[in-house]
Amino acid sequence: MTDRYQGFVSTPVGKFLAKNLGLPSPMRLDRYTEGAPLVAGTVLLGGAGRLAEQLPEVLGDLGITSTTVRDEDATYQALVFDATGITASPDLHALRDFFTPVLRSLAACPHVVVLGTPPEATSSAEERVAQRALEGFTRSLGKEIGRGGTVQLVYVAPGAEAAVDSTLAFFLSPKSAYVSGQVVRVGTVGSTTAEPVADWSRPLAGKTALVTGASRGIGEQIARVLHRDGATVIGVDVPQAASDLVALVKELDGDHIALDITGKDAPQRIAHHVKEKHGGVDIVVHNAGITRDKKLANMKEDRWDSVIAVNLTAPERITAELLAQGAVNPNGRIVGVASIAGIAGNVGQTNYAASKAGVIGFVDALAPELTDGITVNAVAPGFIITAMTAAVPFATREVGQRLNAMAQGGLPVDVAETIAWYASPGSTAVNGNVVRVCGQMMLGA
Question: What is the CATH number of domain 31-186?
Answer without folding.
Answer: 3.40.50.720
